[in-house]
């Protein structure tokens, strides 16, 4: 039997039975949603997926007959075989939707070691955020697999929180630290909380940084002079060899920090479109404004062995690009909508890549 590559099979399939692409992708999304929300009822699932109950019924009946779903009084759940198939389907669906070519393009244009692009748009579907977190968790575990002594720094945010929730391992030699101080009112999305959750999942130690994310330089200096414990934590954070960070829109993050509206306007006038680690970037990747902090800043990243940025949603495309152009990230995990927005920006300005 002759060897035919998966890409060749997909190309033939697209030519002969193009309708199969939509069918496989739709059933993949059904399995993925059930795996996140199980047990779940048919009506709720149809609403979340934006499908009619009639179309959804045909999908779930097929998946049940194939041994991939269980039906109970509390709703539908994915079987063990279904969970295995779901993981195997991810790469296949990526190729079906030509996401792998997007990954290669972004990796080349932005000089990254690895790019993973997942189907969907996190702005429209919260499951996509959780998928980004799940994939990032897998990458983190592989980075820790050499069983050396690691210091993992994490920022706050929904996507990084999803990564922590999806991490399961045993890394007693690892220390988990917050990359920054506290930001915003949601404790579960703050770096300290995420560091605690991640350390629990890895069955290892963590340190906390009980300092607000943005205070004056004078106050920061006084804290370091008077609190030896905080100074020790900061030194450990600065020694991190792995960083997992989120990326946000400049205006959104400025408002979360409670910045003066006049300063927010000045940021926009300076061209700020993205934020990461308290630094505000223009579309060319230049830092146009920086907040004071005891945690990591962009100029610390060149000393970190592996920097992984994770974020999704079309609305964040330009923000992600602004951070990546600073040249500090090694790995990007994002979604199709954000990736397409980034590629559109790159293609509209080919001389500024």
From TrEMBL:
What Pfam families is this protein classified in? CggR_N, Sugar-bind
Q: Where is the CggR N-terminal DNA binding domain?
A: 24-92
Regions that span the bilayer: none
Highest taxon above the source species: Bacteria
Give the SUPFAM superfamilies listed for this entry: NagB/RpiA/CoA transferase-like, Winged helix' DNA-binding domain
- What's in the keyword line of the UniProt record? DNA-binding, Transcription, Transcription regulation
Residue ranges of every copy of the Sugar-binding domain listed in the record? 96-343
An example Gene Ontology molecular-function term: carbohydrate binding
- Give the similarity note: Belongs to the SorC transcriptional regulatory family.
Please state what the protein is called: Transcriptional regulator, DeoR family
- Organism listed in the record: Acidaminococcus fermentans (strain ATCC 25085 / DSM 20731 / CCUG 9996 / CIP 106432 / VR4)
Identify the taxonomic lineage of the organism of origin.
Answer: Bacteria, Bacillati, Bacillota, Negativicutes, Acidaminococcales
């Amino acid at each position: 039997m002759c060897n035919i590559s998966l890409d060749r099979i997909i190309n033939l399939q697209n030519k002969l039975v193009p309708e199969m692409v939509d069918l496989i992708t739709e059933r993949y999304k059904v399995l993925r949603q059930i795996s996140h929300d199980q047990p779940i009822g048919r009506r709720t699932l149809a609403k979340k997926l934006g499908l009619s109950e009639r179309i959804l019924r045909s999908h779930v009946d097929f998946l049940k007959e194939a041994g991939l779903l269980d039906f109970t009084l509390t709703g539908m759940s994915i079987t063990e075989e279904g969970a295995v198939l779901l993981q195997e389907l991810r790469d296949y669906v990526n190729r079906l939707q030509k996401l792998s070519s997007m990954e290669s393009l972004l990796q080349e244009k932005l000089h990254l070691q690895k790019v993973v692009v997942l189907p969907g748009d996190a702005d429209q579907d919260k499951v996509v955020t959780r998928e980004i977190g799940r994939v990032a968790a897998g990458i983190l575990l592989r980075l820790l697999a050499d069983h050396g002594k690691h210091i993992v720094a994490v920022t706050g945010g929904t996507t990084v929180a999803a990564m922590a929730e999806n991490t399961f391992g045993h890394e007693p030699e690892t220390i988990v630290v917050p990359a920054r101080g506290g930001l915003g009112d949601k404790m579960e999305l703050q770096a300290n909380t995420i560091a605690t959750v991640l350390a629990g999942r890895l069955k290892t130690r963590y340190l906390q940084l009980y300092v607000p994310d943005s205070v004056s330089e004078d106050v920061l200096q006084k804290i370091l002079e008077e609190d030896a414990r905080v100074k020790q934590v900061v030194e450990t954070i600065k020694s991190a060899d792995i960083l997992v960070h989120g990326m946000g829109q400049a205006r959104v993050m400025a408002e979360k920090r409670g910045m003066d509206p006049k300063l927010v306007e000045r940021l926009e006038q300076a061209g700020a479109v993205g934020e990461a680690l308290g630094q505000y970037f223009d579309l060319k990747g230049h830092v146009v404004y920086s907040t004071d902090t005891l945690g990591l800043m962009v100029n610390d990243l060149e000393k970190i062995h592996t920097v992984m940025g994770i974020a999704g949603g079309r609305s964040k495309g330009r923000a992600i690009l602004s951070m990546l152009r600073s040249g500090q990230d090694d790995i990007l995990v994002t979604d199709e909508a954000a990736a397409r927005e980034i590629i559109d920006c790159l293609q509209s300005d080919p001389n500024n890549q």
